[in-house]
């Protein structure tokens, strides 16, 4: 059975040594969570994930969810107990507002906990994870009554939440939504229609489920401008807060799918279900979009989570599995063979994953920190910069970390040879689970178009220019630092490739948008490489400084510097290929008639 | 349910217009299979695969194989009928020797049929596929009596065959094999031990199964020099050819695994099983190696097969699925949305797969053709060149085409959005099935080491020099051809990268083998890119010539030229990154102590 140890030490190093968490102590939330508190929280989260969630992962994959004849869904054995522990530990509302029962701590810390929880059991972590998304939506857009009715019981974990967007004929293109909402005359609506791919849509973890639903009010304009957001509970809530009758909402079927078997993916049928408008009529998409950055960041975290747990197991296996001899002569001649970690190709594989994971974690935490600043700072400029950063980096994190996280899970599986293909060893589950993160919350091709078509040009390119400025500042500040040369040199070259690609779009894509579309995915990955390379620059700087402190951290810091050099030498040069593809433009891509495919 | 249409037209174009199949008409086998015969054979194979095998694929994945309490294995419903049709059509023995009931046709054609069969149902195609491997081993190394006893009934499909190599503690490193063979005094042996990961090890398709088993004769030298090859039938064969008692061979369990559910992956227990030595004692590994090139080529074919069937379904879906509008304005304004094939990122994805598949098929057929020449030519030089080519290209084809074939299946799945993750649509099965090809018959890291450590330096680099010479000849011959400039220019640059990488190994890896190990996987992929780029050069030349013929082939040839340009513009530039990684050497890769992973 796979093992997992939450990377608490690495998280703390990133927060306190690399990202300057403590500089934000003036902000609400941060003030209540100094270093000691953060350490205690992460240690507790680690314990819960390692001891309570992890043991349910493989069994949950094997058992899956079961739909009863009455439309009820049974989650895998052990999920109910694990959910109770997770909810009672206060983890769902860690960053929710205190007035709704939350702890009001930085969202950054929820990101960390969600990484650990997803590594331990991704399918399970989706139940509280979707609830957190629904909490965010209601907090931002719900009426006071809606907040009072739903939020305390979602924050406590007594009820869970879902998002109902997709329909059979519309995924990315939500303008095609057909689900109807008819005013009931009493301020409520009756919703009718069918939604698909609803994660956590039905289950036996809680008595009630709070569905957020996109639907079209009778007579609304066509397309995306006629979509409204509703809240529709599985069981109606009486004025005194007790549970009333079942609403007209039922789970029609659950999907048989590649992975995340422990999470029920439901077809949800709305049959005149009572629902209440969240925010303004016909402004439902805008309401969804305000929480989309956070949701997409959360999916990026899932990509990292599978890459991390797959790495840990592959590294352990490589140190145990005896097979063949080192190219330079037997390393353990008294044993029948050397452990496979002596082989350069095995180390190359492991370092490739390790070097990605550490920088990806940094990029996520950096961005989550900016998100918190944007949310709670009272300094308008800092707030705007945080928001710019969050908007720009969200599609990069979602697209790149889930793409590469999946590739990494595949590489980690490969370390096991034939055993990696066998369910018992658990590695193939990581691959299957990681795969969904590339698809949901906007398929990665959509992320790439969001980056190139919306985030880059927004506000005259303000966000991307700020990013370049920050990287350039780092390069200038450290130009003379010999210890950082292996980092600043490659970062400078990669940054130049990114600038060339950006200029190429400015020159060629304005008048011919297909040039943007044809280069979007490569641009997203190029951007991700530079972002990760910049993170390695900052990690390396912090590691060099910390190494000088002594305190027995030298070995750990040396390992970081080696992983960082590996990234600079082996991963970052990919920017050149990405740039070449972008500059190839759209002509060949668009040349064929559809029939020729 | 997924569809599949065997790419017969493309195969014929490659064989007759690109690879000069007809120039080999003087060779045995080829003489009996001129163009008309080949066309008829491929059309018949296509029909069988599309109509009989394809319908069993998804159902077989869902049902899987079942182990009975008596150790019997039930294959999925429909497999028995499909197997009967496949055997009765003579497909197993298409290239087997006529004296054993085979048709004696070029192995090249078996490669083609296996591509089609694997696209239609990979798990199924492994039953006859492994039989073909066992036939090849017995043909090369079996005694006359063994050939008489087993071959006719394997060629006819009455019995199937298996390969028993792996044990729990030994996969790549066969020197660790523990299974024992004790002489019985009558010329036979008694085998005791346990083998794992035995594909097709037990099933209900035939009455008998012929196991080829690696074991160590009592008192044999340790390591790889003490391993012998045996034949051990599931049911003993009486002198008159009738079936006798059950042998001491049983299936202990079958694996629950990521994919190829329709093929039983068995733990095979040998409990004093009667077995007969194949070839010489202690020469078992050498005997296995002589057939390994062919087996590995076959796995490369599987990689292509999943890439092809996944592509076909993704292309069809992209033409049907309505979602969003073209960046340049609605293409089908009368419909609620445009088909997603209008989007450049969708076309980029599809072209990336298409451009790979067509060149990969060419590389496989070219190599299979060389393999036939090596096998049957009486011209010593031609024979040697064929063998050189086959040896050099086998690890490249196995490693690169299965790696990229898997990536392509993932990309094709991505085209379906959420539907790609749902079993019903069939795309996720292609991904799961394709995954095994990167692992078995030597994990791809082992292929890379085989290429760099053995195939490159062999005979003073004769094979790789011949490859460079051929590519250079093509470049020189076509230097002035304007229509081929988009192909020759990029191919020349990629070839230079390959040469630099080869020189780097010569300069840096002889004295420090870790430099070879650390660069091996990137070198394998770099080699593959140049091989595929060269194939595109030859395909383009043939397409330009054929285009001039008219005959209504212009559109098809134009599509090839576009796909080829895409490969040159977007895929081939990856050689630069591969070279940079190789030249980074082993220092960073080997710097960390094992505990730091």
UniProtKB/TrEMBL annotation, chains A, B:
Against InterPro entries, the record matches this protein to:
Acyl-CoA_dh-like_C_dom, Acyl-CoA_Oxase/DH_mid-dom, Acyl-CoA_Oxase/DH_mid-dom_sf, AcylCo_DH-like_C, AcylCo_DH/oxidase_C, AcylCoA_DH/ox_N, AcylCoA_DH/ox_N_sf, AcylCoA_DH/oxidase_NM_dom_sf
Its cofactor is: FAD
Domain called Acyl-CoA oxidase/dehydrogenase middle: residue spans: 163-271
The protein's annotated catalytic reaction(s) are: 3-(methylsulfanyl)propanoyl-CoA + oxidized [electron-transfer flavoprotein] + H(+) = 3-(methylsulfanyl)acryloyl-CoA + reduced [electron-transfer flavoprotein]
Enumerate the GO terms in the molecular function aspect.
Answer: flavin adenine dinucleotide binding; oxidoreductase activity, acting on the CH-CH group of donors
Whether Flavoprotein counts among this entry's keywords is: yes
Primary role: Involved in the assimilation of dimethylsulphoniopropionate (DMSP), an important compound in the fixation of carbon in marine phytoplankton, by mediating the conversion of 3-(methylthio)propanoyl-CoA (MMPA-CoA) to 3-(methylthio)acryloyl-CoA (MTA-CoA).
The identity of this protein, by name, is 3-methylmercaptopropionyl-CoA dehydrogenase
Its lineage opens with: Bacteria, Pseudomonadati, Pseudomonadota, Alphaproteobacteria, Hyphomicrobiales
């Amino acid at each position: 059975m796979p093992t997992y140890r939450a990377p608490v030490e690495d998280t703390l190093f990133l927060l306190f040594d690399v990202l300057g968490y403590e500089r934000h102590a003036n902000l609400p939330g941060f003030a209540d969570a100094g270093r000691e508190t953060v350490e205690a929280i992460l240690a507790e989260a680690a314990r819960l994930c390692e001891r309570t969630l992890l043991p349910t992962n493989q069994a949950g994959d094997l058992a899956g969810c079961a739909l009863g004849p009455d439309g009820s869904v049974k989650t895998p054995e052990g999920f109910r107990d694990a959910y109770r522990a997770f909810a009672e530990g206060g983890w769902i509302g860690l960053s929710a507002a205190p007035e709704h029962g939350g702890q009001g701590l930085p969202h950054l810390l929820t990101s960390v906990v969600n990484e650990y929880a997803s590594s331990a059991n991704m399918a399970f972590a989706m139940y509280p994870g979707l609830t957190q998304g629904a909490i965010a939506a209601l907090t931002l857009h719900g009426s006071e009554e809606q907040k009072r009715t739903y939020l305390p019981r979602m924050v406590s974990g007594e009820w869970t939440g879902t998002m109902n967007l997709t329909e059979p004929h519309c995924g990315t293109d939500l303008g095609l939504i057909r689900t109807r909402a008819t005013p009931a005359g009493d301020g409520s609506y009756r919703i009718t229609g069918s939604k698909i791919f609803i994660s956590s849509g039905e289950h036996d973890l809680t008595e009630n489920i709070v569905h957020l639903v996109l639907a079209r009010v009778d007579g609304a304009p066509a397309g995306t401008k006629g979509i409204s957001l509703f809240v529709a509970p599985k069981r109606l809530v009486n004025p005194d807060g007790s549970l009333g009758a079942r609403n007209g909402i039922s789970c029609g079927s659950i999907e048989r799918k590649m992975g995340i078997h422990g999470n029920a993916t439901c077809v949800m049928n709305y049959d005149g279900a009572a629902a209440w408008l969240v925010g303004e009529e016909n402004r439902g998409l805008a309401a969804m979009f305000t929480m989309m950055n956070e949701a997409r960041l959360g999916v990026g975290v899932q990509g990292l989570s599978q890459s991390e747990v797959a790495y840990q197991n592959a590294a352990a296996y490589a140190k145990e599995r005896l097979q063949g001899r080192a190219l330079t002569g037997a390393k353990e001649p008294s044993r029948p063979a050397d452990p496979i970690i002596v082989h350069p190709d095995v180390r190359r594989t492991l370092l490739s994953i390790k070097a990605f994971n550490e920088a990806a974690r940094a990029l996520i935490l950096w961005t989550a920190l900016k998100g918190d600043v944007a949310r709670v700072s009272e300094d308008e400029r800092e707030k705007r910069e945080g928001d710019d950063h969050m908007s720009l980096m969200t599609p990069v994190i979602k697209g790149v970390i889930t793409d590469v996280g999946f590739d990494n899970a595949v590489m980690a599986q490969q370390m096991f040879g034939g055993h990696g293909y066998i369910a018992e060893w658990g590695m193939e589950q990581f691959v299957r689970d990681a795969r969904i993160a590339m698809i949901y919350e906007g398929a990665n091709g959509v992320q790439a178009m969001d980056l190139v078509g919306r985030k880059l040009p927004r506000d005259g390119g303000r966000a991307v220019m700020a990013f370049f400025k920050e990287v350039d500042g780092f390069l200038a500040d450290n130009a003379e630092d010999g210890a950082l040369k292996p980092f600043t040199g490659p970062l400078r070259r990669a940054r130049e490739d990114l600038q060339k690609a950006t200029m190429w779009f400015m020159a060629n894509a304005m008048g011919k948008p297909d040039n943007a579309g044809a280069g979007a995915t490569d641009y997203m990955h190029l951007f991700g490489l530079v972002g990760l390379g910049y993170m390695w620059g900052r990690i390396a700087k912090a590691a060099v400084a910390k190494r000088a402190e002594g305190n027995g951290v030298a070995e750990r810091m040396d390992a970081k510097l080696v992983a960082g050099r590996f990234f600079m030498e082996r991963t970052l040069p990919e920017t050149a290929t990405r740039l070449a593809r972008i500059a190839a433009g759209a002509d060949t891509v668009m040349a064929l008639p559809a029939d020729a495919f």
